[in-house]
Design goal:
It holds the Pfam family CTLH. InterPro entries: CRA_dom (IPR013144), CTLH/CRA (IPR024964), CTLH_C (IPR006595), Ubq-SigPath_Reg (IPR050618). It comes from Solanum lycopersicum. This is CTLH domain-containing protein. The chain is mainly alpha-helical and 190 residues long. The radius of gyration is 23 Å and the shape is elongated. α2 runs antiparallel to α8. The chain has two domains: 123 residues, no CATH class; 34 residues, no CATH class. Strands 1-2 form a two-stranded antiparallel ribbon. 65% of the residues lie in helices and 4% in strands.
């Protein structure tokens, strides 16, 4: 209880309201992320549309990547006929509209040409990292639609600090932060 009071007092002193943190939004994004990472792309698309149907309507590249991931999951689950039908009906028309989509579609369909996906030159598409990439793209789009930054503020601030120090190095002597995790300072060599 004392910890909670201290935390509450700390928040009040810094004018931080816990109400500002939209926990429902975080939970929604986590659910979408989990769906994509576990290969349930149809569920993820439905959840994104429930959150904001404009996300996929206004971002055809994201929608294509989700559909591409859906095709990859069909191939991963050895539903080859369904995968081929899905590619022809859903993805091929999009590929005709956009050359980069067509290239991605061709790479993905190449997975069907190999009995052993491990022998395919584009086998990285069935790797877990592809799911993570797609999930990250979806998460960024949701954050953008909710007017949040897609990158954490701390990361941006640290990048800015490094850039500023690099700029200052050329002009002045100052105590430079040498270790960001401990905020260790180095006195300037005059």
């Amino acid at each position: 209880m004392q910890k909670l009071q201290r935390s509450s007092k700390w928040n009040q002193e810094r004018n931080v309201s816990l109400a500002e943190i939209d926990l429902a939004s975080i939970e929604d994004r986590m659910a979408v992320n989990k769906a994509v990472q576990s290969g349930n792309v149809e569920d993820a698309i439905e959840m994104v549309n429930d959150l904001n149907p404009e996300i996929l309507k206004t971002n055809p590249q994201l929608f294509f990547h989700l559909q591409q991931q859906r095709l990859i999951e069909l191939i991963r689950n050895e539903k080859f006929e369904e995968a081929l039908e899905f590619a022809q009906e859903e993805l091929a028309p999009r590929g005709e509209e956009n050359e980069s989509f067509l290239e991605d579609l061709e790479k993905t369909v190449a997975l069907l040409a190999f009995e052993e996906v491990s022998e395919c030159p584009v086998r990285e598409l069935v790797d877990v990292s592809q799911r993570l990439k797609t999930a990250s793209e979806v998460n960024a789009a949701i954050l953008t639609s909710q007017s949040h930054e897609k990158d954490p503020k701390l990361s941006s601030l640290l990048k800015m600090l490094i850039w500023v120090q690099d700029q200052l190095d050329e002009k002045v002597y100052y105590p430079r932060i040498t270790n960001l995790s401990t905020a260790s300072l180095e006195n300037p060599a005059v």
